[in-house]
Design brief:
about 450 residues, alpha+beta, Uridine Diphospho-n-acetylenolpyruvylglucosamine Reductase, domain 3, Alpha-Beta Plaits, 4 domains, about 20% strand, globular, binds flavin-adenine dinucleotide
């Protein structure tokens, strides 16, 4: 326990009574995330302003209390779990869209804004915020920035970091900083904005975000490709991207397809082993022209089916099916190690073949799906954590997978971050000097190690 009676009294002075939670049953609501693991905080604070965040951090720093920033708690690597007890700082009440500047294509938001809400606010103005994690209906922009979230559209539009121009943040000792610009360009000093993006709540609390937004594409077409060979389907990805740049290029293997089969609006041929789900976007003319190029290219490919979604409902069902894969996987086993590895696109077939090998030598279900267009494949190792032999097998498979990914020239996380669940593997990818400089940066920002301790570093 790090929260003394005295510290609690000091915190009570920072916020109104309804912004501080310490009843056990309410604390439970802030004890978990997308990993299914649980750690109970000692108190939860729900600030509504930068000033409140700052005064909370001053108290936390004075009393040496761990603080874990939290958005919607949908993270997949334990980032928002209070593993050392202390405080959870929920940013969900800082949820205002402060400004949309249409002329300069900028949106300024508080961190608790839900991704989808921002998209909806931009829509009538003809604007668009592309980063689209599959959790977009419930995850926060603050959480997206802290994890540098990606999504299906990253193949064409990039990830969260490509849209963040500047930030306001509160440091561990309560000092406030502003980083970046609200202009299209800016190179003054070190790029602290980029440093904070993806820092997983370990360097500062993000309290305001200046985002670049772009004109909304007016037309879309969703195309589904089915193959009886995983190698053929994944081998198609790099070649297809020589012809067109689709807005999304997703991949699902046969197991992933099976678990969401009831949501797919077509009967899939029984020989189906893999699906590629593409979306073309732009003006009507651009989409038609890309569709033509795609059709010409696909004429020479050996596919089971090529089909366009003919209505908005069909399109929505296909995307709903794709977004449901992660939660639906729990039909296979109660627990999941969901890894979001990335390899150069041309090496996806090798990675997928290796995961099939891992599945063969294991008794656990292992399946793959993900953002094939940018080489970001989600490898899911399903297990029952109450069975030690399954945990051992899953850990072994995860370790082998990460080594293989590095051998293929890839990275162990494309979008979910390191958090708690991958920190023991950091040294597989980062050389010692790089790791040491990162530790020194953490020390500079947070000398007392109170901001999200026990995360990222082994
Ligand atoms: C079904 C499902 C699908 C998903 N699909 C994707 C996907 O396609 N792409 C993807 O990238 N991710 C995906 N995720 C993971 C997750 O949704 C993202 O990582 C998301 O960005 C987390 O946002 P959140 O608001 O839930 O943050 P949380 O989980 O609450 O927090 C995540 C991390 O950010 C830190 N943090 C949160 N807010 C702040 C802040 N204001 N300041 C500083 N640090 C902060 C936390 O301390 C933590 O380390 C998925 C998750 C689920 C459950």
């Amino acid at each position: 326990m790090s929260l003394t009676k005295e510290a609690l009294q000091a915190l009570q002075k920072c916020v109104d009574p309804d912004q501080l939670i310490n009843a056990h049953e309410e604390l439970l609501c802030y004890s978990y995330d997308g990993t299914g693991r649980e750690f109970l905080p000692e108190a939860v604070l729900l600030p509504v302003s930068n000033e409140e965040v700052s005064s909370i951090m001053k108290v936390a720093s004075a009393y040496n209390i761990p603080v874990v920033p939290r958005g919607a708690g949908s993270g997949m690597t334990g980032g928002s779990l209070p593993v050392a007890g202390g405080l959870v700082l929920s940013l969900t009440r800082m949820n205002r869209i402060i400004e949309i500047d249409k002329d300069n294509q900028i949106a300024v938001v508080e961190p608790g804004v839900i991704n989808q809400q921002l998209r909806q606010a931009l829509h009538p103005l003809g604007l668009f915020y592309p980063p689209d994690p599959a959790s977009l209906k419930f995850c926060t922009i603050g959480g997206n920035v802290a994890e540098c979230a990606g999504g299906p559209s990253a193949v064409k539009y990039g990830v969260t970091r490509d849209y963040v121009l500047g930030l306001d943040a509160v440091l561990a000792d309560g000092r406030e900083i502003s980083t970046g610009v609200r202009t299209a360009k800016g190179v003054v000093g070190y790029d602290l904005t980029r440093l904070l993006i993806g820092s997983e709540g370990t360097l500062a609390i993000i309290t305001k975000i200046i985002l670049r937004v772009i004109p909304r594409p007016t037309s879309r077409r969703t195309v589904l490709l089915l193959s009886d060979s995983i190698a053929d389907a994944t081998g198609l990805v790099a070649r297809l991207l020589h012809i067109i740049t689709p807005a999304t290029l997703e991949y699902l293997d046969a197991t992933a397809l099976n678990i969401v089969a009831d949501k797919i609006p077509f009967q899939l041929p029984t020989q189906t082993k893999a699906m590629l789900l593409l979306e073309l976007d732009g003006s009507k003319e651009m989409v038609a022209s890309q569709a033509n190029q795609l059709n010409n290219f696909l004429e020479h490919e050996n596919l089971l089916m090529v089909k366009s979604a003919s209505t908005d409902e069909e399109r929505d069902s296909l995307w709903q099916a794709r977004r449901s894969v992660s939660p639906a996987a729990f039909a296979l086993k109660p627990d999941k190690m969901g890894e979001d590895v990335v390899v150069p696109r041309s090496r996806i077939p090798k990675l997928v073949a290796y995961t099939e090998h891992l599945a063969k030598i294991s008794t656990l279900p292992i399946f793959t799906f993900g953002h094939a267009g940018d080489g970001n494949i989600h490898v899911n190792i399903m297990l029952d954590r109450s069975k030690p032999e399954e945990v051992e097998q899953a850990n072994d498979a995860k370790h082998k997978l990460f080594k293989q990914v590095i051998d293929l020239g890839g990275t162990i996380s494309g979008e979910h971050g390191i958090g708690l669940t991958k920190k023991d593997y950091l040294a597989i990818e980062l050389p010692p000097t790089s790791l040491n400089i990162q530790r020194q940066l953490k020390q500079l920002f947070d000398p007392q190690n109170i901001l999200n301790p026990h995360k990222i570093f082994p």
